Amino acid sequence: MKRTSKAASSKGSSKPKKASAAPAATSAPKASVELSSIRERIDGIDQRIHDLLNERARFAQQVGESKRGEGMSTADFYKPEREAQVLRNAIERNKGPLRNDEIVRLFREIMSACLAQQEPLKIAFLGPEGTFSQQAVLKHFGHSVRALPLPAISEVFEEVQAGHADFGVVPIENSTEGTVNHTLDMFLNSPLKICGEIELRIRQHLMGRMKGLQKIARVCSHPQSLAQCRQWLDEHLPNIERVPVSSNAEAARRARDEDGTAAIAGEAAAEVYNLGVIVPEIEDTADNTTRFLVVGRKLFSASGQDKTTLLVSAGDTQSPGALHRLLGPLAANDITMTRIESRPSRKRKWDYVFFIDVIGHAEQPPLSTALEELRKASTLFRVLGSYPAAVL
């Protein structure tokens, strides 16, 4: 009887264990069903997105066929003012959770892929591969273009002017180190126009094949990048040789091939030349940004938020009030000037020209009114470009 009682008791004691295990067994399938349902909904959304992308691409093809029928070239298909409007609209309607910069990047790639349906744009830039100029090309034009690296800013201008490239991308100024004078000087004799601007946040990384700072014998980089990291280098590598080279990509190549050489460059250079990042983001200022210009062969229409770049001279810049006469029409018409640079005219000693950036489009008042007055006050007057202000 006792054995029977024990057996009964044992069976009875096992029932609560089975009962307690039951909820865990039923909860897992429920969570799995919910996850499966969410994935099915995502798949459905992906299908709709895919269908809409192809529909957009078909419309882009129709636009391209229409323009080709009118005898237009590939470069004529690109409308920077229209692209800027699309991106601004995307930002305006963005409710999250995707950030504005992510939305802009996605729409930029969609437009890039659609534009390349006929033939990819050819974009010349200051190379080689792995430079910040290449990053600027991809940020502005997307990845569906043919990027053409060139060894000098002058060659970028020459390739675009000759029609071998549709557009070019060149650096114009850095928020820490100021103007790239070579780019400004190219406009003195070039017929090319400014078609756009790009603002690129610059993150400088110390990279090389070594694991730490102890085995670094020299640091190579473009002079601008060395200057942008001067304080960090003074503090962490004060006695190490600093070697200026033609580009950050060249610095990365040397770091790959030379023992003891480290480079300062962007993340793309580390990937291209298979280098490890020893110390990330060593730039001296947290908002270090470089502005690039897009150069092409013609002017474009207004986008609604534009800048205009002028090249002007008052003749004898040594005479009293010469600069005031140039700036007076801008002030009188409430035009905002964002930048002014003087450069030697190269015609005679101590003779200067002025590069001026203002807000507005040259064909729209009040700027058009101000420019007509400025033309009369100038001995040299050229509109180098009216173009959409950088979107993010």
UniProtKB/TrEMBL annotation:
Residues 311-388 form the ACT domain. It catalyses: prephenate + H(+) = 3-phenylpyruvate + CO2 + H2O; chorismate = prephenate. Its main location: cytoplasm. Residues 122-297 form the Prephenate dehydratase domain. Pathway: Metabolic intermediate biosynthesis; prephenate biosynthesis; prephenate from chorismate: step 1/1; Amino-acid biosynthesis; L-phenylalanine biosynthesis; phenylpyruvate from prephenate: step 1/1. PROSITE patterns: ACT, CHORISMATE_MUT_2, PREPHENATE_DEHYDR_1, PREPHENATE_DEHYDR_2, PREPHENATE_DEHYDR_3. GO terms for molecular function: prephenate dehydratase activity. It comes from the Bacteria. It is found in: Cytoplasm. Residues 1-32 have a biased composition (Low complexity). Its EC number is 4.2.1.51, 5.4.99.5. It holds the Pfam family CM_2. Residues 1-34 are annotated as: Disordered. Residues 29-122 form the Chorismate mutase domain. Keywords: Amino-acid biosynthesis, Aromatic amino acid biosynthesis, Cytoplasm, Isomerase, Lyase, Multifunctional enzyme, Phenylalanine biosynthesis. Catalyzes the Claisen rearrangement of chorismate to prephenate and the decarboxylation/dehydration of prephenate to phenylpyruvate. This is Bifunctional chorismate mutase/prephenate dehydratase. It comes from Steroidobacter flavus.
